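User: Here's a chain of 283 residues. Predict its fold as tokens.
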Amino acid sequence: MVRSARPLSGAANLASTPMHPVDQAQGLRQMFAARVLRFIPVVANNRAAAAAGLVLERLCAAYAACGLHTLVVDASEQARPPGELAEFDLAEGVERLSSQVSFMAARGLPLSFADARGSCETFLDALADAAPQSDVVLVHASASELARIFAQRSRHANLRPLVVTNDMAEGLTEAYAAVKVLSQRGGWMAYDLLMCAPRRSTQADEVIARLARCADEFLGVAQRSALRLDPFEPASLDPEARFMDMAAGLLHCALAHTLSDSAFDHLISPGAALPARQSPVLN
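Assistant: Prediction complete.
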């Protein structure tokens, strides 16, 4: 559990609502009218699959330290397939892990939203409707699947994916292949990198430098920032300052999605679990 951490730069305080609602429905609409979900693409690396859990856990801890609720959507090849009910209603596939973290197993699920162009962008709408209480949605999937999900909507956005690798040659090779797919199919010419390797690793820094060099020289892609995570550090450690800065940067460049009317209808439907207090609003 995160004990303390400095706030993410750009995380807003709770919004005030000076207007007095006429009835409950109007009051709820005022509360959620400005709600915005932030989608962050996290690239799955099959050669560094063990690192994925660590990265997702640390990101959840960073956002939880700022009072944000995070939904982790795992659509990687290593993930569990979605439950049968989730095929018909994504909300049925959301598992509440804690007061600030939810999880959805979604292997193969985005492809069921593919249209005639091969785009799976409506998957984002369905996720927003399924988890309206969330503030941040981490979409963990392969580079090709992330391109199908995000490419159409991110053409005029400053979206920056997060690439994960380890200090092994196989992890580097797959990370480079992912960067190539992201640039050619998604149009993303910059990324952030998390290197999961023990502190004693002598090759981790060289792998980071080699990936940055190859991405720049052969693809024209910029490695904006790179951090190392030690998989042997206890999960109870507070996120360090540099990691919080990276998490804030990812949040700032995330794909914004305003809460839809269908999500609002879910919140006020009989039996819906209404939040106990107004949730943070990100501007």
